[in-house]
Automatic annotation (TrEMBL):
It is found in: Cytoplasm; Nucleus. Gene3D superfamilies: Glutamine Phosphoribosylpyrophosphate, subunit 1, domain 1. InterPro entries: Ntn_hydrolases_N, Proteasome_beta_3, Proteasome_bsu_CS, Proteasome_sua/b, Proteasome_suB-type. It comes from Stylosanthes scabra. Coiled coil: none annotated. One of its GO terms (cellular component) is proteasome complex. Component of the 20S core complex of the 26S proteasome. The 26S proteasome is composed of a core protease (CP), known as the 20S proteasome, capped at one or both ends by the 19S regulatory particle (RP/PA700). The 20S proteasome core is composed of 28 subunits that are arranged in four stacked rings, resulting in a barrel-shaped structure. The two end rings are each formed by seven alpha subunits, and the two central rings are each formed by seven beta subunits. The catalytic chamber with the active sites is on the inside of the barrel. Component of the proteasome complex. Keywords: Cytoplasm, Hydrolase, Nucleus, Proteasome. This is Proteasome subunit beta.
């Protein structure tokens, strides 16, 4: 079994009209044994920027702490929040720096940039960025997420429709992956507000 699959995870970010959504499952497991059913994979960097970390849970928590530290230093020095593109470059550099003993994480970054233009990207464990205009996925359920998102995604969705789409894609995908599941956690971010919702999924 790959070390990336040890804890199981499902992450997806999707773009709408001047908004984005990022969603994850809530299961923390050790291979096929479930340890927790309320694990937090998505973290807020600031009001318009979120990061989800799939992969090995301990590495994800360590990496998140380092990223928060770097972002706070940036805020102190620049007296403003980091743009999503800048933050993606920071994450990429941080991962590449450790390429000979990498963090076993695949980050998904989603944010609103200049003019409230949504930005999403994912990268591998050594920081190779993959940018997308529609959706990005990561984790053990990524294969079924690709299929679900491909068939459900429409451009320029409003916030409520975007929430519905990403939720259906996530729930139908984790049902096809035994290492992720136990409900979902969804953030929908618009220029004016952040909506956080918990999804009830199959609890087996």
């Amino acid at each position: 079994m790959s070390i990336f699959e040890y804890n199981g995870s499902a992450l997806v970010a999707m773009v709408g009209k001047n908004c984005f959504a990022i969603a994850s499952d809530r299961r923390l497991g050790v291979q096929l044994q479930t340890i927790a059913t309320d694990f937090q994979r998505i973290s807020k960097i600031h009001d318009k920027l979120f990061i989800g970390l799939s992969g090995l849970a301990t590495d994800a928590q360590t990496l998140y702490q380092r990223l928060v530290f770097r972002h706070k230093l940036y805020q102190l020095r620049e007296e403003r929040d980091m743009k999503p593109e800048t933050f993606a470059s920071l994450v990429s550099a941080l991962l590449y720096e450790k390429r000979f003993g990498p963090y076993f994480c695949q980050p998904v970054i989603a944010g609103l940039g200049d003019g409230d233009k949504p930005f999403i990207c994912t990268m591998d464990s050594i920081g190779a960025k993959e940018l997308a205009k529609d959706f990005v996925v990561a984790g053990t359920a990524s294969e079924s997420l690709y299929g679900a998102c491909e068939s459900m995604f429409k451009p320029d969705m409003e916030a409520e429709e975007l929430f519905e789409t990403i939720s259906q894609a996530l729930l139908s995908s984790v049902d096809r992956d035994c290492l992720s599941g136990w409900g979902g956690h969804v953030y929908v971010v618009t220029p004016t507000e952040v909506k956080e919702r918990i999804l009830k999924g199959r609890m087996d």
